[in-house]
């Protein structure tokens, strides 16, 4: 069975691993690089638990053959915090009681990060659309949407403070 | 196109725990050298927050701050028996077991402290910040880390406790069904407001107004998570979910993934207003009742009743799909 | 956060707590938002083998031949497991507490009772090889007529699909879990109005975001360590040991962090086979349901069919309620016999009715076996009861909340299962919700109280 | 079983591999779900990710979209306002960042809403195989026709393109009925109509009978209702997990009207 060496920049760090044909980006992250934040909830692209940023764009990593993204940059939930300093989205999820079982949380947070990177001031409905590929079975979504809107506010406030500094 | 609006009501109760073969859970608790308290369980946290709420129960009972509590759970080699996480039993059963274990440990803790302070244990109290102190003379106090050190290195004592909760098995009388099936009952009432599209049969749940009586909200934020997430599941059951969309006529077209298995997305969530009432149960931990399961139940009939209120279609089969609404509307129009 | 209305039950809820009643942050949340929470599948083991299942293609059939020779030829396939490799192939999840019969095989023997029933397990070096191997198993069937309707299953002329001889669970000699309270026929005779309606539901999946699964790791001393996302660690351990016919001390279950359960992870479906595979290969073995298996093969919430007949007086008092309830257990019992009992205990709902008659049937059909799910035995009954309440209230032109309040159970009332009610609060949740939406109730209904005995005051 | 994943750098290499029996993927969002969880015959994949087929070019009013352009690129391209909404009705953001324009042409119904829109826009594809390249209307495209390299169409005149997708959920839900239409009117009378339907058949349906019923008419509730009745004869809906054939047939005229009249 042909095996390739695949190079990725993962959370800013150069990584190389061996990929079999069936090795998806998700399995490579989880099983070869030890980054288990992205979850396998369906392997069908329909639950969003495996969402990571591929060259800045959120993708369902379960549907990406690892060999096809050689040389790309990948961001996962593990790379969001700066040491002990959580990202605004992570902190807003904590403060807003926006997690229950936590299985969807990493994917949900990556979708939220991607939204806020593109749109710093989203409406609630834009948040709804942005997380429509992320299934949560516990919370009923409302606290998640609130947390993402709250994170956007925090980020804008901080940007405002830095601008006036 | 006409959008029709309706309101529906439902009220329910729900049993805590079960009567199946007895309903036990056990807990062990012990202090570490520096006065951390490890709660050993085999109970499972499904995301409802059991690990947090039992730590609260232990902290309250011990009179210690939350930071002192460590929960070690779900290893069958180290944790004592727990029946499992189901039947709205986790908080009630495990909470009770933890309280019992914590009481026993607290007694030892106070005795060790009493020996160190050379006072009577009965005159001691905890202040919730980590100190055990003499009632009326707060200056005479000792920190839990010193108590634990003394227990381990001077007094040769284990600050520990065992807790068990058992709801004994109740055998239903075959002829009449006489039985004792629960420990207590929680309650809920839902008012649902819906919108019905009279051309497509699509039902939109606009608002849910809920009151829940849950005995005691041990953690109001997590209780809110439970009731509002559960109500969402009720909406989902009511208007979307089925593993056999053509039940019972055919088993074909069963959904195989999250695309086909329909649930409301965040674009379909109703506005929820929730109020919590507390009538502490006599046998619950600090009066708490089980609420995990009840929360999905009242929204379903409330939505069915609201659909009738909106458009005159009585739906008696779950889920209430656009097709079932539209067939009902067509029948009304044909009959008119 | 939900508002706590402390006006209700003021005298009963006096408290002096420090930690209880405060919004302490979840202890697991930091792990959740950083991706560090360790779920079952987040553990990786060298030399891990994978298990996949070949499943029944038919609802009901005799198995005439199983040929797995092609599966063994697939590169990477290590072992094929059939029922002959399962030490105690017949089980029932409730046998620990003496509830039988052990009516379900771990792997099918001479017949299958539902589409998707496991027949052969294939263990391989990779998931892909295990899938390939499972697909290469050839099963030859003789199809039998399938029974797919609960009421049809109960008819004497319907073929019996179960070894035990009936298409329903037998409750101490009865075809249903019974509730008999008062004299329901006398109640109907006395009533001013009779209302009878039918309700039903389709099966529902728990749909947790994390599928059911386990990883079994042979330990240096010969024990098996089971990393599982079970909802009940000892329940899983004890049942697995019984199936393996191994000492209970041979097994250790670790879990406790679960990506959603909702009742779907209490059936002990994956651990026994993974243990057998780990023992045969002496390698760590992972058996995790695919999403399709989770959606279509794992137990759903049972479909139910419920008939409710009410006798009601002109003033809105319900004087008799008769309920015929049918739980579609699917092909095997699992927790359904208990679910029907739980349903019976819930009847006639949170109302005090002097004459109650119920038969709660646990019926077998050739469908995916159903089992516990959030609100087990109650959720669908509540749909039926509360729809019934609405229909009756409308027919009698009584306000829907007043109709419920008039019949609401209170402390001291005797329930249909003859337990005296205490700690009730139905009246108050209705009053509170009415206030929440501005639904006006007359003074006599606002003055009602759960702790005031029926007939006294109000 | 997946036996190899090729990532060729140019179209000719891709074509050679496909001629050898390999399967092309754009984003892989249709093929990978199957390969991940189900046994399959030995399969070699050819990913078009690096084959130089990505990009959106406008020459005057002529739009040329490379087959490997993602749906997300279309979604965020201001020049393609009519298609922005079409694309947003398909799947979810993390899928649209993978799924491609070319791939969507082959998506199984009730998916493939972009293909519905492209048929209504009279789009053409360029196909390449070892014998050379040729053009084909999207409407006539079938599996195995060759490698799609580009999709070309004329930008519709402002206000002439209509699109409605009815689904069980607002976002990320397969089609019950998709209506895409390019309708030109002069002095209140329909002079041309090109209407495509999704969700109501095993493939994208070009609604000839609906078109015929509308041309020469004013767009009114009555004429659109008549067109919908005419269209019932050319749709072939099926039962699936989302809705029954009965339901799709029943509400098809409603959504046709909502697409054409806006209410």
TrEMBL record, chain A:
Gene3D superfamilies assigned to the protein according to its UniProt record, in alphabetical order: 3.10.20.30, [2Fe-2S]-binding domain (1.10.150.120)
Sequence ranges assigned to domain 2Fe-2S ferredoxin-type in this UniProt record: 4-80
Pfam families linked to this entry: Fer2, Fer2_2
One Gene Ontology molecular-function label: metal ion binding
Keyword terms of this UniProt record: 2Fe-2S, Iron, Iron-sulfur, Metal-binding, Oxidoreductase
Superkingdom of the source species: Bacteria
InterPro entries: 2Fe-2S-bd, 2Fe-2S-bd_dom_sf, 2Fe-2S_ferredoxin-like_sf, 2Fe-2S_ferredoxin-type, 2Fe2S_fd_BS, Beta-grasp_dom_sf, Diverse_Oxidoreductases
Stretches of the chain forming a coiled coil according to its record: none
Protein name: Carbon-monoxide dehydrogenase small subunit
UniProtKB/TrEMBL annotation, chain B:
Gene Ontology MF: a single term: oxidoreductase activity
SUPFAM superfamilies to which the protein is assigned, alphabetical: Molybdenum cofactor-binding domain (SSF56003)
InterPro entries from the UniProt entry: AldOxase/xan_DH_MoCoBD2, AldOxase/xan_DH_Mopterin-bd_sf, N-heterocyclic_Hydroxylase
Regions that span the bilayer: none
Domain Aldehyde oxidase/xanthine dehydrogenase second molybdopterin binding span(s) in chain numbering: 5-270
Protein's recorded name: Molybdopterin-binding domain of aldehyde dehydrogenase
Species name: Asanoa hainanensis
High-level lineage: Bacteria, Bacillati, Actinomycetota, Actinomycetes, Micromonosporales
UniProtKB/TrEMBL annotation, chain C:
Keyword Oxidoreductase: yes
Entry's Gene Ontology molecular function annotations: iron ion binding; oxidoreductase activity
Span of domain Aldehyde oxidase/xanthine dehydrogenase a/b hammerhead: 34-145
Keywords, ordered alphabetically: Molybdenum, Oxidoreductase
Domain of life: Bacteria
Keyword Ribosomal protein: no
Protein name: Aldehyde oxidase and xanthine dehydrogenase, a/b hammerhead domain
Originating organism: Asanoa hainanensis
UniProtKB/TrEMBL annotation, chain D:
Keywords from the named record: FAD, Flavoprotein, Oxidoreductase
FAD-binding PCMH-type domain span: 1-158
PROSITE patterns assigned: FAD_PCMH
Pfam families in alphabetical order: CO_deh_flav_C (PF03450), FAD_binding_5 (PF00941)
Keyword Cell inner membrane: no
InterPro entries: CO_DH_flav_C, CO_DH_flav_C_dom_sf, Diverse_Substr_Oxidored, FAD-bd_PCMH, FAD-bd_PCMH-like_sf, FAD-bd_PCMH_sub2, Mopterin_DH_FAD-bd
The keyword Transit peptide is annotated on this UniProt entry: no
GO molecular function: FAD binding; oxidoreductase activity
Protein name: CO or xanthine dehydrogenase, FAD-binding subunit
Organism listed in the record: Asanoa hainanensis
């Amino acid at each position: 069975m042909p095996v390739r060496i695949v190079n990725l920049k993962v959370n800013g760090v150069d990584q190389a691993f061996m990929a079999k044909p069936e090795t998806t980006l998700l399995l490579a992250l989880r099983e070869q690089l030890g980054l288990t934040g992205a979850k396998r909830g369906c392997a069908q692209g329909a639950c969003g638990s495996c969402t990571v940023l591929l060259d800045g764009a959120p993708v369902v990593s379960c549907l990406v053959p690892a060999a096809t993204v050689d040389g790309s940059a990948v961001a996962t939930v593990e790379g969001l915090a700066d040491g002990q300093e959580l990202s605004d989205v992570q902190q807003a999820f904590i403060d807003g009681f926006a997690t229950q079982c936590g299985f969807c949380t990493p994917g949900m947070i990556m979708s939220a990060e991607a939204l806020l990177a593109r749109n710093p001031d989203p409406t609630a409905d834009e948040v709804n659309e942005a997380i429509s590929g992320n299934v949560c079975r516990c919370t009923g979504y409302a606290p998640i949407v609130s947390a993402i809107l709250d994170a956007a506010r925090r980020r804008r406030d901080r940007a405002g403070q830095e601008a006036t500094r | 196109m006409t959008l029709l609006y309706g309101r529906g009501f439902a009220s329910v109760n729900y049993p805590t725990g079960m009567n199946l073969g007895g309903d036990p859970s056990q807990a062990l608790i012990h202090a570490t050298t520096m006065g951390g308290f490890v709660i050993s369980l085999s109970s499972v946290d499904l995301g409802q927050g059991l690990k947090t709420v039992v730590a609260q129960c232990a902290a309250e009972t011990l009179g210690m701050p939350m930071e002192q509590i460590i929960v070690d759970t779900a290893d069958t080699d180290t944790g004592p028996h727990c029946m499992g996480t189901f039947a709205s039993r986790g908080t009630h059963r495990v909470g009770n077991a933890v309280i019992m274990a914590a009481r026993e440990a607290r007694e030892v803790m106070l005795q060790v402290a009493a020996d160190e302070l050379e006072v009577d244990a009965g005159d001691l109290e905890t202040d919730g910040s980590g100190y055990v102190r003499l009632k009326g003379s707060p200056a005479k106090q000792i920190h839990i880390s010193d108590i634990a050190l003394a227990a381990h290195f001077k007094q040769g004592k284990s600050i520990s406790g065992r807790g068990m909760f058992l709801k004994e098995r109740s055998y239903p009388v075959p002829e009449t069904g006489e039985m004792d099936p629960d420990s207590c009952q929680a309650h809920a009432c839902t008012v649902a407001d819906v919108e019905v599209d009279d051309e497509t049969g699509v039902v939109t749940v606009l608002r849910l107004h809920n009151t829940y009586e849950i005995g005691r909200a041990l953690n109001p934020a997590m209780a809110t998570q439970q009731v509002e997430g559960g109500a969402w599941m009720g909406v989902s059951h009511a208007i979307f979910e089925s593993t056999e969309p053509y039940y019972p006529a055919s088993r074909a077209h069963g959904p195989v993934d999250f695309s086909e298995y329909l649930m409301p997305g965040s674009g379909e969530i109703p506005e929820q207003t929730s109020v919590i009432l507390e009538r502490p149960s006599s046998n619950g931990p600090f009066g708490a009742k089980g609420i995990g399961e009840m929360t999905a139940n009242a929204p379903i009939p409330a939505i069915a009743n609201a659909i009738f209120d909106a458009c005159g279609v009585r739906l008696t089969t779950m889920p209430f799909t656009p097709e079932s609404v539209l067939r009902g509307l067509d029948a009304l129009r044909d009959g008119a | 956060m939900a508002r706590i209305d402390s006006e209700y039950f003021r005298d009963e809820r006096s408290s002096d707590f420090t930690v209880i009643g405060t919004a302490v942050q979840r202890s697991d949340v930091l792990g959740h938002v950083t991706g560090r929470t360790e779920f079952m599948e987040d553990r990786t083991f060298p030399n891990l083998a994978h298990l996949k299942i070949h499943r029944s293609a038919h609802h009901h059939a005799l198995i005439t031949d199983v040929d797995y020779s092609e599966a063994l030829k697939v590169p990477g396939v290590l072992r094929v497991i059939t029922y002959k490799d399962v030490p105690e192939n017949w089980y029932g999840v409730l046998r620990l507490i003496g509830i039988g019969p052990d009516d379900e095989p771990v792997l099918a023997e001479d017949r299958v009772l539902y589409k998707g029933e496991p027949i052969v397990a294939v263990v391989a070096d990779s998931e892909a090889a295990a899938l390939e191997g499972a697909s290469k198993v050839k099963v030859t069937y003789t199809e039998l007529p399938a029974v797919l309707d609960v009421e049809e299953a109960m008819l004497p002329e319907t073929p019996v699909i179960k070894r035990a001889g009936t298409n329903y669970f037998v409750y101490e000699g009865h075809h249903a879990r019974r509730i008999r309270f008062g004299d329901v026929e006398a109640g109907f005779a006395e009533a001013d109005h009779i209302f009878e309606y039918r309700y039903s539901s389709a099966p529902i999946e728990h749909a947790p975001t994390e599928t059911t699964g386990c990883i079994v790791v042979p330990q240096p001393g010969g024990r098996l360590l089971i990393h599982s996302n079970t909802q009940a660690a000892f329940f899983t351990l004890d049942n697995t040991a019984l199936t393996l016919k191994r000492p209970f001390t041979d097994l250790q279950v670790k879990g406790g962090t679960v990506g959603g359960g909702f009742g779907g992870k209490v059936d002990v479906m994956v651990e026994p086979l993974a243990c057998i595979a780990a023992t045969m290969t002496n390698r760590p073995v992972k058996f995790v349901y695919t999403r399709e298996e989770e959606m279509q093969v794992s137990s759903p919430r049972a479909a139910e069919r419920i008939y409710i007949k009410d006798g009601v007086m002109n003033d809105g008092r319900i004087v008799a309620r008769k309920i015929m309830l049918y739980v579609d257990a699917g092909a095997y019992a699992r927790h359904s016999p208990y679910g029907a009992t739980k349903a019976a205990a819930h009847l006639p709902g949170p109302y005090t009715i002097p004459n109650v008659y119920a038969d709660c049937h646990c019926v077998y059909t050739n469908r995916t076996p159903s089992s516990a799910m959030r609100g087990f035995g109650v959720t669908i009954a509540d749909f039926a009861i509360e729809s019934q309440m609405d229909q009756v209230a409308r027919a009698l032109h009584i306000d829907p909340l007043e109709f419920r309040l008039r019949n609401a159970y209170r402390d001291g009332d005797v329930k249909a299962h003859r337990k005296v009610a205490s700690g009730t609060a139905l009246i108050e949740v209705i009053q509170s919700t009415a206030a929440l939406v501005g639904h006006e109730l007359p003074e006599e209904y606002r003055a009602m109280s759960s702790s005031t005995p029926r007939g006294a005051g109000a | 079983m997946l036996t190899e994943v090729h990532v060729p750098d140019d179209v000719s290499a891709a074509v050679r591999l496909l001629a050898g029996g390999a399967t092309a993927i754009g984003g892989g969002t249709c093929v990978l779900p199957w390969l991940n969880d189900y046994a399959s015959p030995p399969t070699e994949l050819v990913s078009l990710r690096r084959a130089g087929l990505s990009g959106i070019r406008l020459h005057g009013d002529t739009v040329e979209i490379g087959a490997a352009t993602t749906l997300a690129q279309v979604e965020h391209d201001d020049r393609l306002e009519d298609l922005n909404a079409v694309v947003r009705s398909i799947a979810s953001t993390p899928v649209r960042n993978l799924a491609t324009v070319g791939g969507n042409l082959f998506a199984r119904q009730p998916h493939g809403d972009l293909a519905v829109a492209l048929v209504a826009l009279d789009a053409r594809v360029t196909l390449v195989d070892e014998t050379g390249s040729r053009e084909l209307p999207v409407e006539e495209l079938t599996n195995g026709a060759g490698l799609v390299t580009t999709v070309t169409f004329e930008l519709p005149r402002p206000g002439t393109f209509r699109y409605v997708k009815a689904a069980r959920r607002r976002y990320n839900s397969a089609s019950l009925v998709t209506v895409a239409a390019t309708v030109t009117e002069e002095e209140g009378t329909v002079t041309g109509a090109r209407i495509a339907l999704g969700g109501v058949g095993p493939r994208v349906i070009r609604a000839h009978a609906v078109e015929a019923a509308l041309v020469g008419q004013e767009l009114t509730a009555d004429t659109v209702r008549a067109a919908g009745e005419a269209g019932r004869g050319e749709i072939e809906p099926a039962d699936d997990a989302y809705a029954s054939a009965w339901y799709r047939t029943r509400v098809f005229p409603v959504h046709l009207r909502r697409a054409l009249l806006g209410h």
